[in-house]
Amino acid sequence: MDEGVSRPRVVVGIDGSPSSYAALRWAMRYAGLLGGTVEAIAVWELPGLYGWSAPAVDMDVDAEEARDRMRRELTEVLGGEGYGAVEMHLVHGNAPDVLLRAAEGAEALVVGSRGRGGFARALLGSVSQHLSHHATCPVVIVRAGTS
């Protein structure tokens, strides 16, 4: 195999919700079929940071603690071997913007149908809906319980 050729990338957004973990499992299977890699991206943003008012939360986020929690959750969802096959990223920013940038040139962008926020009866979360309209690659939206 030519070492100068890159493997297909599958980008998956995770947020700790059941549907994001279903999306992660789906992305792993799809990347396996393609002989590709999986990039799991968790995005964090402080409420109020981009608004007109000052944030009402502590600005000190322990990034290392968040990475450790992400590692534990990914190991729980995928098992030890599966976790080792995932490239993990914890990124500060606006979730749709970060995921759209990460998915540039990817084979697919995979997200859960609903994240942690929003209305429980909504069919799609605001992030997955935004991504489905603006991504430059195919978007796969996975419901919890379908992986």
Characterize the structure shown.
By secondary structure, the protein is α/β, with parallel strands linked by helices. It contains four helices and five strands; from the N terminus they run E-H-E-H-E-H-E-H-E. The chain has helices spanning 18-34, 63-84, 95-102, 126-134, and strands at residues 9-13, 37-44, 86-92, 108-112, 139-142. A five-stranded parallel sheet has the order 3-2-1-4-5, with helices on both faces. Helix 1 (18-34) crosses helix 2 and helix 3 runs parallel beside helix 4 (126-134). The longest helix has 22 residues, at 63-84.
Question: What is shown here, in short?
Answer:
With 147 residues, the protein is an alpha/beta fold.
Topology:
Elements: E1 9-13, H1 18-34, E2 37-44, H2 63-84, E3 86-92, H3 95-102, E4 108-112, H4 126-134, E5 139-142
Parallel strand pairs: 1-2, 1-4, 2-3, 4-5
Helix pairs in contact: 1-2, 3-4
* Sheet of most strands: 5 strands, parallel
Q: Compute the separation of the termini in Å.
A: 31 Å
Weakly predicted, low-confidence segments: 50-55, 118-123
Shape: globular
Number of helices: 4
- The side-by-side strand order for the widest beta sheet comes to 3-2-1-4-5
SSE string: EHEHEHEHE
The helix-and-strand class reads alpha/beta
Name the descriptors:
5 strands; 5-stranded parallel beta sheet; 38% helix; 20% strand
